[in-house]
Amino acid sequence: GIMSARTEELAVARSSTSIRESERSVILRFGFAVAYPDGTIDTFVEDHPTGQFTVDEHLVAFTAAGLAADYDPEGLMGRGLYVARKDGSPVP
Predict the structure, then answer these.
(1) CA 47/CA 69 separation, integer angstroms
(2) Of 1, 68, 74, 77, which has the most beta carbons under 10 Å away?
(3) What is the pLDDT along the chain (92 residues), one digit of tens a residue?
(4) Taking the model in full, what pTM does it have?
(5) What DSSP string runs through 32-49?
(6) Tell me: domain 1-52, CATH 2.20.130.10, correct?
(7) How is the chain split into domains, by residue range?
(8) Is 51 helix (H, G, I), strand (E, B) or coil?
(9) How many whole angstroms separate alpha carbon 31 and alpha carbon 35?
């Protein structure tokens, strides 16, 4: 998708795509364009390597780290959300 924002000083656009490297590895690639009032435009790309794991694999990893964790499949934006805390601490 594409996102953009504008102020009096500049305009920024960000596009994104994903590149699957393997069953467990995906690169999120973000391309940016920044336009200035003098007409110059800067562009750059950021790659964000990510690991792909199941919900159960994440929960096991939280437990191994000494955390009690829950998973909400809806989350804040429909993408799922993990909530983890130290064992014995109150649930928010």
Answers:
(1) 29
(2) 68
(3) 789 999 999 999 999 999 999 999 999 999 999 999 999 999 999 999 999 999 999 999 999 999 999 999 999 888 899 999 987 666 56
(4) 0.66
(5) EEEE-TTS-EEEEEEEEE
(6) yes
(7) 1-52, 53-92
(8) strand
(9) 13
